[in-house]
Amino acid sequence: MILHCVACNARYRQDPMLHACRSCASPLEVLLEDRDFDRARRFEGRGVWRFEPLLPVKRSVTLGEGDTGLHLCERLGRRLGIPRLYVKNEGENPTGSFKDRGMTVGIALALSTGARAVACASTGNTSASMSAYAARAGLTALVLLPAGKVAGGKLAQAVLHGARIAQIEGNFDDAMRLVVELSSQERSVYLLNSLNPYRLEGQKTLAFEVCEALGGSPDALVLPMGNAGNISAIWKGFREWRRLGRIPRLPRMVGVQAERAAPIVRTLREKSAGCRVENPETVATAIRIGAPVNWRKAVAAVVDSGGEAGTVTDGEILKAQQELARTEGLFVEPASAAPIAYLRKRRLKGVRTVVCVATGHGLKDPDAAEHAPVKMKRVKPTLAAIRRLLEG
Ligand code: F0G
Fold first, then answer.
1. 353 beta partners
2. How far apart are CA 127 and CA 335, in angstroms?
3. Would you state the pLDDT for residue 36?
4. Is residue 226 in contact with ligand 1, taking CB distance under 6 Å?
5. In ligand 1, which atom is closest to the CA atom of 123?
6. Atom of ligand 1 nearest to the CA of 229
7. What is the mean pLDDT of residues 82-86?
8. CA 179 to CA 195: how far, in whole Å?
9. CA 185, 189, 194, 198: dihedral to nearest 10 degrees?
10. Using CA atoms, how far apart are residues 202 and 224, in angstroms rounded to an integer?
11. Which alpha helices (H) appear in the chain, and where do they start and end?
12. Are 301 and 231 contacting, i.e. CB atoms less than 8 angstroms apart?
């Protein structure tokens, strides 16, 4: 395996400390070579580490990540006019989001460098996941969060796992800039944002699991985009699975952003050279990001796969969250409902099998329930009062 620059094509030998291109400073990607694929013939075990032959490090710290459910949603599929709609429920991961897939790999790399501390900027889930894996590995966790903009469940996780938490008076993009500067100055602090190409290697395993479960690739995979690490990782996973000869064709990648936090959608529409919006805002705080570090990789995933990217409003996100919970029993956080909201808004042409990635568990953000219609009443402790409620 080598490292490869997505912007200028520069190539580097494997180096767990190298996260940006030395000549153009763009994010790097792990590139598997022919011999890596030749070696990867048998997959054994469970979850993310079942795919160890395709990962850049050996298993060390695990909490049982991966192997999440791929749920066929027939009722919702009928409503949306999709013959086979699946939800890949990443809330079933140990800390309740897809971040665990990457963190188990990233922490192993951190340990291999002799780091004493790990750090990340986060809208919440990365910090929750990193704090848990750092605790398990006996490392110090430092998390930089946008003050007042992280959902309660996620903050509770970082607190309970004993992370050092900096509430930054700024947004995620400010936190990201600071943590990158810090880790470049402090060699003993290992950076675990999705700027870290090794962490993303863990996240690509979602694609392998989907293909194995379906016995092929879906027609389209729909997911929310924030810093855009996940869409890049999953697209890479599909390409590697095809390279192994396990699937004949690739799915269309469909990336969804919140209307007021949609820099990647804008870049694709305007074909602009950069990717940034000022003051991003959305109820889906997980994807409240204005300057996504992996935007180039995300643009490539959408364009190369013949997919698309689009936006949904906060109202559409909350409605989709409630619909998924009520029709399919799946409780996801607002960002994770964005794909369903998008499918309600836009009909994807020529697709039969669609997989939506529900990136995080609904319990992460209990305050989102404030927006749902409530069937709850304070009653006297009598059966008659309860019967009246049942009758509605
Ligand atoms: N969905 C959820 C629930 C997330 O937490 C995130 C990102 C995304 C989608 C977007 O993924 O950044 O790879 O495009 N959360 C990061 C965090 C930014 O800090 O937890 P992405």
1. 84
2. 16
3. 96
4. yes
5. 19
6. 13
7. 98
8. 11
9. 110
10. 18
11. 34-39, 74-80, 99-112, 125-137, 152-160, 172-185, 197-203, 205-214, 229-243, 263-270, 295-304, 314-328, 334-345, 383-391
12. yes
**Model pLDDT for residues 215-244, shown as the tens digit of each residue:** 999 999 999 999 999 999 999 999 999 999
Place of tokens 């369903």: 340
Closest by Cα among 201, 194, 204, 234 to 339:
234
- Tens digit of each residue's pLDDT (9 = 90 or more) over 287-321: 999 999 999 999 999 999 999 999 999 999 999 99
Cα dist. 41→34, 197, 215, 246 in Å? 12, 23, 17, 10
Centre of ligand 1 to C-alpha 41, Å, is 31
What does the pLDDT average to over 247-264?
98
Q: Which residue has a Cα nearest atom 10 of ligand 1?
A: 226
Q: How far is the CA of 84 from the centre of ligand 1 (A)?
A: 26
Structure-block tokens of residue 70? 């791929």
Question: Between 152-160 and 125-137, two packed helices, what is the crossing angle to 10 degrees?
Answer: 20
pLDDT digits (tens, 9 = 90+) for 152-172: 999 999 999 999 999 999 999
CB of residue 157 inside a 6 A radius of ligand 1: no
Give the angle subtended at the CA of 305 by the CAs of 21 and 328, to the nearest 5°: 110
Which amino acid, residue 111? Answer: L
* Residue environment code for 236-269, b if the CB has 16+ CB neighbours within 10 A, otherwise e: bbbbbbbebeebeebbbbbbbbbbbbbbbbbbbe
Beta bridge partners of 222: 254, 356
As a whole number, mean pLDDT of residues 333-348 equals 97
Report residue 54 as tokens. Answer: 């395709």
